[in-house]
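Please predict the structure of the following assembly.
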Amino acid sequence: DTGVSQDPRHKITKRGQNVTFRCDPISEHNRLYWYRQTLGQGPEFLTYFQNEAQLEKSRLLSDRFSAERPKGSFSTLEIQRTEQGDSAMYLCASSLGAGVGTGELFFGEGSRLTVL
Amino acid sequence: DAKTTQPPSMDCAEGRAANLPCNHSTISGNEYVYWYRQIHSQGPQYIIHGLKNNETNEMASLIITEDRKSSTLILPHATLRDTAVYYCIVRVAAYNQGGKLIFGQGTELSVKP
C-alpha cells in the first residue's frame, strides 16, 4: 500500500504522559498536514509542512504540541503532558502541492488517542 | 476561505441518486468547491472538485450554480458503501497558497436498503 500511513493506530495513555504519533506521507508529496478530529465533529486543522519547513500552525496547537518533519519525509506529532481533552483522532494528510490537480489531500487512517 | 452550509443529515434509498446540497454564498472568484467524504473510522477521501463548470468523475457529479453560490454533489446510484459524512469545502487552489482544507460539520448520508 503506497498511501499515507500512520502509527500507532490506537494509543491509550494516562493523563500527564507524553505521546508521539508518526506519519509517513505518499512518497514525492512535499506537503504534509496534521488534523485533529473529535467525535461528531469535522477534522480541525493543526499544522502543515512544505518539505521540512513548518509553514502554518493553528491556534489549536498549544505549547504542549510539537510537530516535526526533519528530512521532509515522515513527520511526528508529539503531545506532552497529555490531558483528557486531548483524546481525539489525529489525522495526517499529504499532497503533491496546492494547485489544482496537485492539491488534493490524501488522508491516512488516523491515530486514535485515549487519555485516561 | 469561505464558509459552507450543509444539511446535517440525509437519507437515500439504495440504487437511487443521492443529491447533497451545499451553500457557499460568500465564495470568492478564485475559490474552488471541493467535496470529501469520511466513512466511519477512516480518514477523509477526496471525491471531486470544480470552479464553475459541472464536473463528473467515476465517483460522482458536481453541479455548480451559475452564480456559484451553491452546488450539489450527485451520487448517481447510491450503495450501502456510500454511507458516510460528506464535506463540502471551498478553498483557493494555487501553488503558492497553503492548501489546507477547513472542514465544517458535513452531511451524514445514510443509504438504506
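The beta strands of chain B are 9-13, 18-23, 31-38, 45-50, 55-56, 61-64, 70-75, 84-92, 107-112. The radius of gyration of chain B is 13 Å.
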